[in-house]
Amino acid sequence: MPAPGTPHRSDVLVIGWGLAGLVAAGEAAAAGKTVTIVDQEPRSNLGGQAFWSFGGLFFVDSPEQRRFGISDSLELARQDWLGTAGFDRDEDAWPRRWAEAYLDFAAGEKRPWLRSKGVGFFPVVGWAERGGYNALGPGNSVPRFHITWGTGPGLVAPFRAALETAEADGLVTVLPRHRVTGLTTRDGHVVGATGDILSPSAADRGVATSREVVGAFEIEASATIVSSGGIGGNHDLVRRNWPARLGTPPDHMVTGVPAYVDGSMQAVSDAAGARLINGDRMWHYVEGLHNWDPIWPAHGIRILPGPSSVWLDATGLRLPPPLYPGFDTLGTLEHLRGTGHDHSWFVLSQRIVEKEFTLSGSEQNPDLTGRDVALLMRSRLGKGAAGPVQAFLDNGEDFVVRDSLDDLIAGMRAMPGGDVLDPARVRAEIEARDREMDNDFTKDAQVAMLRSARAYRGDRLIRTASPHRLLDPDAGPLIAVKLHVLTRKSLGGIETDLQSRALGADGAPVPGLYAAGEASGFGGGGVHGYRALEGTFLGGCLFSGRSAGRAAAAAV
């Protein structure tokens, strides 16, 4: 850094070093531009929220899909995206253009571009957000969820390496513990940023850090890219933006992102003239668990559920079709917020937990994250629950494991809030569902969906348990899981054009200002509309970060 009081100078300033910021900085540096990248956290957090992810990516008509006999097309993906997004606002003009551009990217250049960087993919394609409505409704018509070999860290690695190479070459300056508090404007142009230097920290990745201010900084740049993430770590901001269509916000939530995902750059960007849109669109999960071994405050983990568990509300009433595990995240959230309770329940068997329970996050999947084929074979195809799942069964406060249904219900009722559970209703729901398993015919839509899912080889192989009665002693013991709302993604943000230029209230670009990643609603201020198809968040960071870095470099 220059001497105190002298502004640091670079061609491009990137605010936030998550995946979008790393990609943007790397693209600008590859174009020969000098880049400064700042973040309020210590360097141990380079890669941001993406590092903690499962590494899911949305591709269209990929080699992995074709090997499993999945017939996909750009037309089918567009039908699914638009049916899921539900664009219906004047503000959706740019988000819809971003959606079209992203679909072209996902069906074309995205996979070979990542492969050229050494990113590989697990061969079995997952089927997330299955929908269950009609063909024009929300959901993926076919499996499209591709898991990065190495999960989040494996996806971050090549972009981090490129940044560090450019840093060694003198093109990139990395400034940890620099919190931006203002964007500098001159004659209507954004020409850099000012902010606080925070006290040094040796904290491990993800751990909450001090906000003690020890100095100030000023950075001048010809182009500034905001890639500071969303609001999921700030429950007050989540509740303030909570949409009425999803009912009242929960009193109790668990947190799926570190505390630094605080939305602090929203007000800063707004003050510089950027237009924030679709702030009431958000993506929170309803299968959240309290992490028995937390890293950040209120740390929650999401179950990535297979389709077999019976889903009950807090009173014991089974959720209506098609609100089954893995089918419609926000539809389920809306329904559960109407019950007046902050929790719900999965009821399942040991056989189901062994086959279907995967936990989201790189740290919860050591086989995929560590690229350990032997461990993967044991954990995904062997007997017993995977190690991280078993750790939750043994230590997690949200799990009840019993040999009989009566004892299971008693254990559920003994948990906080369990007194609203109706034992007779739970028994009726479980026994009725089990009767539907006694022959090949059924009127139970979830049972029909379950049998249909097993027609897909990937589900049958590693994702969906063989249909059985929950009360079959050979499938036991019985398991109940108390589920909570888990905060995660912002679907709205800074409105941008297809060059990632931040737009003002008049619809014109704010000179010198760009936005990428979750800060831009993953592109355009809301590329997902109301709902997402999964595997599209990391991809949105890649696509918008690449766009922002290239456009900023071309402009300076």
From TrEMBL:
One of its GO terms (molecular function) is steroid dehydrogenase activity, acting on the CH-CH group of donors. It holds the Pfam family FAD_binding_2. It comes from the Bacteria. Keywords: Flavoprotein, Oxidoreductase. The keyword Oxidoreductase applies. Residues 11-538 form the FAD-dependent oxidoreductase 2 FAD-binding domain. NCBIfam families: PRK12834.1. PANTHER family: 3-KETOSTEROID-DELTA-1-DEHYDROGENASE, KSDD-LIKE STEROID DEHYDROGENASE RV0785. This is Putative oxidoreductase. The lineage of its organism: Bacteria, Bacillati, Actinomycetota, Actinomycetes, Micrococcales.
